[in-house]
Structure formats: structure tokens, C-alpha cells
Design goal:
The chain is mainly alpha-helical and about 270 residues long. It has helices at about 5-25, 30-50, 60-75, 80-95, 105-130, 135-160, 175-195, 205-230, 245-270.
Length: about 270
Amino acid sequence: MAKSNLIQRVLAAAVFGPVLVVLFWLGDYWLFVMWCGVVSVGTWEFYRMLSQKGLQPWTKFGIVISLSWCVVAFVIGPNAFASFFLVLLLLMFSVALFRDTTSYRMLNAGGTLLGVLYVGFLGSFVLIVRNSLPFGASELAVLILLGIWANDTMAYFFGRWFGRWHPFPTISAAKTEAGFIGGLLSALLVIGLGAQVLELFDITQSLILGLLIGIGASLGDLVESMIKRDMDVKDTSDLIPGHGGVLDRFDSVFFVFPLVYLYFQIVASSQ
């Protein structure tokens, strides 16, 4: 990474990082409004990439549905997801009948649906985890965010300093085994210590949560790299200086928060 690009990344993080921490801490409508903006732009970026490959996704429709998923998550919660998905699927097939294009209707419908699921559905778990947990929601949401940042930051530096093996050369040649290990250890350290200081969980739960966040952040980064490689783009957009687009910045978030939700669901069902 060029020195000028690294400086841009640091400056952007210094400006936007504290704002995100405050919004995740406050939660409620403050986070909801901001997150709807993230989901809207992220969905648009996804469809923009599809358009560059010759498909014609239903951009406005998809953005509205992604936002609707966030509204359902915020107002009702995950209990309504099955019904909402059923309505969405039936609606997608119905809308395809009346589109102007005469070819690739199902491919365009499939691309539109994938964008909604990737950005809207996965992204909605940010609101669920932050606003629906019965304990320590503010502290936990911020701690997860810090764990993701620790993973992403140290994965870059460990990969740069010690990386030798590139397990996914066709997806992201910059990803190395050292980067994964360094990021995972950093997430474990931040979550483990943070959860103990804040008295959120015992040490076992803290380490499990740190492990999930480290793995989820790496998976989210790899999946987004795979999507960009398929679409032949370097960044999803140039919205955030030094970071690229919204999807470039929040790719880890889209995987980590659903995993955290699943973990707490398993814990709750086992008690």
C-alpha cells in the first residue's frame, strides 16, 4: 500500500471511527438512520458492480427492499424474517414478469435478490444485535466494532511483515496465513480483555466470541474480495478516501454480527 493511501486510511478512520463508536453506543434511532444510509449505499454499490458486468439489476427496487429489511429488523425483529422473505421471493418473481427487458430476466432478478440478501439481510443483524439483546447492548456493540477493527488492522500489518503463504491467490493475493493469525489473535485479545473489564461474560464466552469475530471478519473480507474479483473491480466505489466504498469498509461487519446473533441464539436455547 502506498504511503499516501495509508495516510488517507488513517485520516478517514480518525474522522469516521469515533462517529461510528458513538452511534453504535447510542443505538436506537441514531444508529438506525446511519445504518440505513450504509445499507442504501452498499446496495447501490453492489448493483453498480453487476451493471458493469452487463446485468441490469433493479437498483431502486433492491435499495427499497434492503431498507425494508432494516425496518423489519428494527421494528419487529428476526421473528418476522421468514414471512418477509416469503413475501420478497413471491414479489421478485412477480416483478420479473413486468420488467421491460426481454432477456436475462431471471439473472437480473437473481442479482437483485443477492444484493438484498448480502447487504440488506446480513446488514440488518447490526440493528438486531445492538437493539434486541437484553443485556449490555451498548458495551457489546462497541466492543464488537473494536474487535473487527483490531482484526482488520493487525491482519494487514501481520500479513505485510510476516506473510509467506497466500491461501487464496485467485481471490485476494494480499491475504496471508500470518495476516489471518495476527488478526484473529488481535480480535481474541480485544474481545477477551474488553468483556472482562466490562464484566459482560466469563472468560470462556469471551474467547468464543473473540474467535467468532476474528473468523467472521476474515470471511467477510474474503467474500467481498471474491465479489470484486468476479466483477473485475478494485474498490466498490471511491466514497471513503483510502478505504474505497461502503462495502469495502463494512464487509467484515456484514458477517460478524450475524455470527454473533447465532451464537447468542445457541446459548439461549441451551439454557
